[in-house]
Amino acid sequence: MPALHLVDPCAALREHVLCYVVRDEAAAKQTPPEAQFPAHTISVLALLHEGRIEAPDHGRDFAECTLLGLQPKPYRLKYVSLPQSTSVLLRAGRAGELLGLPPADMAGCVLDARAAIPSLALQVLMHRARHARSVQERVGALEAYLLNRLDRRTALPAWADALLALGPEIARRPVAELGERLQLSTRQLQRCFGELFGVPPKTYQRIARAQTALRGLHAPGGTPLPELAEACGFSDHAHLSRELRDAAGHAPAALRRAFERQWPALAPLAALLAANL
Hints:
Radius of gyration: 18 Å
Helix content: 40-55%
Structural class: alpha+beta
Distance between the termini: 16 Å
Largest sheet: 8 strands, antiparallel
Number of helices: 15
Strand content: 15-25%
Number of domains: 2
Order of helices and strands: EEHEEEEEHHEHHHHHHHHHHHH
Number of strands: 8
Protein backbone atom coordinates (compact mmCIF):
# COMPACT_ATOMS: atom_id res chain seq x y z
CA MET A 1 0.00 0.00 0.00
CA PRO A 2 1.39 3.46 -0.89
CA ALA A 3 2.77 5.26 2.15
CA LEU A 4 0.55 8.28 1.63
CA HIS A 5 0.78 11.03 4.21
CA LEU A 6 -2.71 11.97 5.45
CA VAL A 7 -2.75 15.30 7.28
CA ASP A 8 -5.71 16.73 9.21
CA PRO A 9 -6.81 20.31 8.44
CA CYS A 10 -6.67 23.14 10.95
CA ALA A 11 -9.76 23.77 13.08
CA ALA A 12 -10.95 26.66 10.90
CA LEU A 13 -11.17 24.41 7.82
CA ARG A 14 -12.63 21.21 9.29
CA GLU A 15 -16.13 22.03 8.11
CA HIS A 16 -14.86 22.17 4.52
CA VAL A 17 -11.82 19.86 4.36
CA LEU A 18 -11.57 16.12 5.02
CA CYS A 19 -7.78 15.96 4.89
CA TYR A 20 -4.64 16.63 2.87
CA VAL A 21 -3.04 13.75 0.99
CA VAL A 22 0.70 13.96 0.25
CA ARG A 23 2.45 11.58 -2.12
CA ASP A 24 6.18 12.12 -1.60
CA GLU A 25 9.12 10.38 -3.28
CA ALA A 26 8.90 7.30 -1.04
CA ALA A 27 5.18 6.92 -1.68
CA ALA A 28 5.67 7.48 -5.41
CA LYS A 29 8.07 4.54 -5.55
CA GLN A 30 5.41 2.28 -4.00
CA THR A 31 2.52 3.53 -6.12
CA PRO A 32 1.16 1.09 -8.73
CA PRO A 33 1.33 2.30 -12.36
CA GLU A 34 -2.46 2.53 -12.48
CA ALA A 35 -5.07 3.14 -9.78
CA GLN A 36 -8.84 2.78 -9.88
CA PHE A 37 -11.21 5.12 -8.05
CA PRO A 38 -14.97 4.85 -7.58
CA ALA A 39 -17.55 7.57 -8.09
CA HIS A 40 -17.31 10.05 -5.22
CA THR A 41 -19.10 13.08 -3.79
CA ILE A 42 -15.95 14.87 -2.59
CA SER A 43 -13.91 17.28 -4.70
CA VAL A 44 -10.12 17.32 -4.97
CA LEU A 45 -7.63 20.12 -5.57
CA ALA A 46 -4.27 18.58 -6.47
CA LEU A 47 -0.80 20.09 -6.87
CA LEU A 48 1.57 18.06 -9.04
CA HIS A 49 5.23 18.55 -8.11
CA GLU A 50 7.06 15.87 -10.11
CA GLY A 51 6.24 13.28 -12.76
CA ARG A 52 2.97 12.94 -14.62
CA ILE A 53 -0.56 11.78 -13.78
CA GLU A 54 -2.79 10.76 -16.67
CA ALA A 55 -6.59 10.65 -16.46
CA PRO A 56 -7.41 8.49 -19.52
CA ASP A 57 -11.15 8.31 -18.83
CA HIS A 58 -11.28 12.11 -18.94
CA GLY A 59 -8.94 12.37 -21.94
CA ARG A 60 -6.32 14.56 -20.29
CA ASP A 61 -3.32 14.74 -17.98
CA PHE A 62 -3.19 16.49 -14.63
CA ALA A 63 -1.95 20.07 -14.82
CA GLU A 64 0.40 21.59 -12.27
CA CYS A 65 -2.76 22.44 -10.29
CA THR A 66 -5.81 20.30 -11.03
CA LEU A 67 -9.39 20.35 -9.81
CA LEU A 68 -11.62 17.27 -9.74
CA GLY A 69 -15.26 17.79 -8.91
CA LEU A 70 -17.80 15.21 -7.82
CA GLN A 71 -17.32 12.15 -10.04
CA PRO A 72 -20.49 10.23 -11.04
CA LYS A 73 -18.58 7.32 -12.60
CA PRO A 74 -15.50 5.26 -11.68
CA TYR A 75 -12.26 6.35 -13.30
CA ARG A 76 -8.57 5.45 -13.62
CA LEU A 77 -5.40 7.40 -12.99
CA LYS A 78 -2.05 6.40 -14.50
CA TYR A 79 1.14 7.38 -12.67
CA VAL A 80 4.12 8.11 -14.92
CA SER A 81 7.69 8.96 -13.86
CA LEU A 82 7.06 8.66 -10.11
CA PRO A 83 4.67 11.59 -9.63
CA GLN A 84 4.72 13.49 -6.36
CA SER A 85 1.66 15.49 -5.36
CA THR A 86 -0.16 17.30 -2.57
CA SER A 87 -3.96 17.23 -2.61
CA VAL A 88 -6.81 18.45 -0.49
CA LEU A 89 -10.04 16.46 -0.22
CA LEU A 90 -12.99 18.84 0.06
CA ARG A 91 -16.18 17.69 1.73
CA ALA A 92 -19.29 17.12 -0.38
CA GLY A 93 -21.08 20.36 -1.11
CA ARG A 94 -18.22 22.59 0.05
CA ALA A 95 -16.01 23.00 -3.03
CA GLY A 96 -18.27 25.54 -4.75
CA GLU A 97 -18.48 27.69 -1.65
CA LEU A 98 -14.74 27.58 -0.93
CA LEU A 99 -13.37 27.83 -4.48
CA GLY A 100 -16.02 30.11 -5.99
CA LEU A 101 -16.82 27.81 -8.94
CA PRO A 102 -20.32 26.43 -9.59
CA PRO A 103 -20.36 22.71 -8.68
CA ALA A 104 -22.10 21.90 -11.98
CA ASP A 105 -19.00 23.22 -13.78
CA MET A 106 -16.83 20.76 -11.82
CA ALA A 107 -19.00 17.61 -11.75
CA GLY A 108 -17.51 14.77 -13.76
CA CYS A 109 -14.54 16.91 -14.80
CA VAL A 110 -10.79 17.11 -14.42
CA LEU A 111 -9.96 20.81 -14.79
CA ASP A 112 -6.82 22.91 -14.96
CA ALA A 113 -7.34 25.06 -11.87
CA ARG A 114 -5.34 27.89 -13.42
CA ALA A 115 -8.11 28.32 -16.00
CA ALA A 116 -11.08 27.33 -13.81
CA ILE A 117 -10.31 29.42 -10.70
CA PRO A 118 -7.61 31.93 -11.72
CA SER A 119 -6.43 34.31 -9.00
CA LEU A 120 -3.30 35.88 -7.55
CA ALA A 121 -3.74 33.66 -4.48
CA LEU A 122 -3.59 30.55 -6.69
CA GLN A 123 -0.41 31.82 -8.34
CA VAL A 124 1.12 32.37 -4.89
CA LEU A 125 0.11 28.83 -3.88
CA MET A 126 1.79 27.32 -6.94
CA HIS A 127 4.94 29.39 -6.40
CA ARG A 128 5.17 28.29 -2.76
CA ALA A 129 4.51 24.66 -3.70
CA ARG A 130 7.30 24.70 -6.33
CA HIS A 131 9.81 25.81 -3.72
CA ALA A 132 8.58 23.69 -0.80
CA ARG A 133 11.03 21.08 0.42
CA SER A 134 8.96 19.14 2.93
CA VAL A 135 5.50 17.68 3.49
CA GLN A 136 4.83 20.36 6.09
CA GLU A 137 5.74 23.19 3.70
CA ARG A 138 3.56 21.79 0.91
CA VAL A 139 0.56 21.31 3.17
CA GLY A 140 1.18 24.72 4.71
CA ALA A 141 1.08 26.40 1.29
CA LEU A 142 -2.18 24.66 0.40
CA GLU A 143 -3.75 25.44 3.76
CA ALA A 144 -2.79 29.12 3.52
CA TYR A 145 -4.54 29.28 0.14
CA LEU A 146 -7.69 27.65 1.51
CA LEU A 147 -7.77 29.96 4.54
CA ASN A 148 -7.55 32.90 2.15
CA ARG A 149 -10.50 31.49 0.18
CA LEU A 150 -12.42 30.87 3.41
CA ASP A 151 -12.13 34.54 4.38
CA ARG A 152 -13.42 35.63 0.97
CA ARG A 153 -16.18 33.08 0.44
CA THR A 154 -19.87 33.85 0.05
CA ALA A 155 -21.78 32.08 2.81
CA LEU A 156 -24.14 29.29 1.80
CA PRO A 157 -27.89 30.00 1.89
CA ALA A 158 -29.92 28.64 4.80
CA TRP A 159 -31.37 25.76 2.77
CA ALA A 160 -27.84 24.55 1.90
CA ASP A 161 -26.75 24.59 5.54
CA ALA A 162 -29.91 22.68 6.46
CA LEU A 163 -29.30 20.10 3.73
CA LEU A 164 -25.64 19.54 4.65
CA ALA A 165 -26.61 19.26 8.33
CA LEU A 166 -28.49 16.05 7.47
CA GLY A 167 -25.14 14.32 6.81
CA PRO A 168 -25.50 10.64 5.84
CA GLU A 169 -29.28 10.94 6.01
CA ILE A 170 -29.19 12.79 2.67
CA ALA A 171 -28.48 9.48 0.96
CA ARG A 172 -30.97 7.41 2.96
CA ARG A 173 -34.12 9.53 2.88
CA PRO A 174 -36.50 9.45 -0.13
CA VAL A 175 -36.29 12.60 -2.22
CA ALA A 176 -39.89 13.53 -1.38
CA GLU A 177 -39.11 13.24 2.34
CA LEU A 178 -36.05 15.46 1.96
CA GLY A 179 -38.24 18.07 0.29
CA GLU A 180 -40.75 17.94 3.12
CA ARG A 181 -37.98 18.16 5.72
CA LEU A 182 -36.53 21.25 4.06
CA GLN A 183 -39.90 22.69 3.02
CA LEU A 184 -38.94 22.61 -0.65
CA SER A 185 -40.93 21.42 -3.65
CA THR A 186 -39.49 18.66 -5.84
CA ARG A 187 -38.48 21.21 -8.47
CA GLN A 188 -36.84 23.44 -5.85
CA LEU A 189 -34.98 20.47 -4.37
CA GLN A 190 -33.69 19.47 -7.82
CA ARG A 191 -32.37 23.00 -8.33
CA CYS A 192 -30.82 23.11 -4.86
CA PHE A 193 -28.93 19.83 -5.37
CA GLY A 194 -27.63 21.16 -8.68
CA GLU A 195 -26.42 24.37 -7.03
CA LEU A 196 -24.79 22.60 -4.07
CA PHE A 197 -23.49 19.33 -5.53
CA GLY A 198 -23.70 19.78 -9.31
CA VAL A 199 -25.94 16.74 -9.85
CA PRO A 200 -29.63 15.79 -9.28
CA PRO A 201 -30.71 14.30 -5.91
CA LYS A 202 -30.93 10.69 -7.07
CA THR A 203 -27.47 10.82 -8.65
CA TYR A 204 -25.97 12.20 -5.46
CA GLN A 205 -27.76 9.59 -3.33
CA ARG A 206 -26.56 6.76 -5.57
CA ILE A 207 -22.93 7.85 -5.25
CA ALA A 208 -23.16 8.47 -1.49
CA ARG A 209 -24.72 5.04 -0.83
CA ALA A 210 -21.97 3.39 -2.87
CA GLN A 211 -19.30 5.22 -0.84
CA THR A 212 -20.86 3.91 2.38
CA ALA A 213 -20.96 0.39 0.96
CA LEU A 214 -17.26 0.58 0.00
CA ARG A 215 -16.36 1.45 3.58
CA GLY A 216 -18.33 -1.59 4.72
CA LEU A 217 -16.62 -3.88 2.21
CA HIS A 218 -13.18 -2.64 3.25
CA ALA A 219 -13.86 -2.95 6.99
CA PRO A 220 -12.75 -6.13 8.78
CA GLY A 221 -15.38 -8.60 9.85
CA GLY A 222 -16.98 -9.48 6.54
CA THR A 223 -20.56 -8.34 7.12
CA PRO A 224 -22.84 -10.53 4.95
CA LEU A 225 -23.76 -8.67 1.79
CA PRO A 226 -27.56 -8.72 2.40
CA GLU A 227 -26.97 -7.11 5.80
CA LEU A 228 -24.58 -4.57 4.32
CA ALA A 229 -27.13 -3.71 1.63
CA GLU A 230 -29.80 -3.00 4.23
CA ALA A 231 -27.44 -0.99 6.44
CA CYS A 232 -26.41 1.22 3.51
CA GLY A 233 -29.95 1.95 2.35
CA PHE A 234 -30.20 -0.44 -0.61
CA SER A 235 -33.45 -2.32 -1.16
CA ASP A 236 -31.68 -5.70 -1.37
CA HIS A 237 -28.43 -7.48 -2.29
CA ALA A 238 -29.19 -7.25 -6.01
CA HIS A 239 -29.68 -3.49 -5.72
CA LEU A 240 -26.31 -3.20 -3.94
CA SER A 241 -24.62 -5.20 -6.71
CA ARG A 242 -26.09 -3.07 -9.51
CA GLU A 243 -25.18 0.20 -7.83
CA LEU A 244 -21.60 -0.84 -7.01
CA ARG A 245 -20.97 -2.13 -10.51
CA ASP A 246 -22.03 1.28 -11.79
CA ALA A 247 -20.23 3.37 -9.15
CA ALA A 248 -17.06 1.30 -8.61
CA GLY A 249 -16.81 -0.93 -11.67
CA HIS A 250 -17.00 -4.24 -9.78
CA ALA A 251 -19.47 -6.43 -7.91
CA PRO A 252 -19.41 -6.28 -4.07
CA ALA A 253 -17.88 -9.74 -3.63
CA ALA A 254 -15.11 -8.93 -6.11
CA LEU A 255 -14.35 -5.66 -4.34
CA ARG A 256 -14.17 -7.37 -0.96
CA ARG A 257 -11.73 -9.97 -2.34
CA ALA A 258 -9.65 -7.23 -3.94
CA PHE A 259 -9.37 -5.37 -0.62
CA GLU A 260 -8.50 -8.59 1.24
CA ARG A 261 -5.82 -9.51 -1.30
CA GLN A 262 -4.48 -5.94 -1.40
CA TRP A 263 -5.01 -5.55 -5.13
CA PRO A 264 -2.46 -2.87 -6.18
CA ALA A 265 -4.86 -0.85 -8.33
CA LEU A 266 -7.11 -0.28 -5.30
CA ALA A 267 -4.27 0.46 -2.86
CA PRO A 268 -4.67 4.29 -2.91
CA LEU A 269 -8.42 3.92 -2.32
CA ALA A 270 -7.81 1.37 0.45
CA ALA A 271 -5.45 3.81 2.19
CA LEU A 272 -8.18 6.44 2.27
CA LEU A 273 -10.83 3.96 3.43
CA ALA A 274 -8.51 2.74 6.20
CA ALA A 275 -8.43 6.34 7.47
CA ASN A 276 -12.26 6.37 7.42
CA LEU A 277 -12.40 8.89 4.54
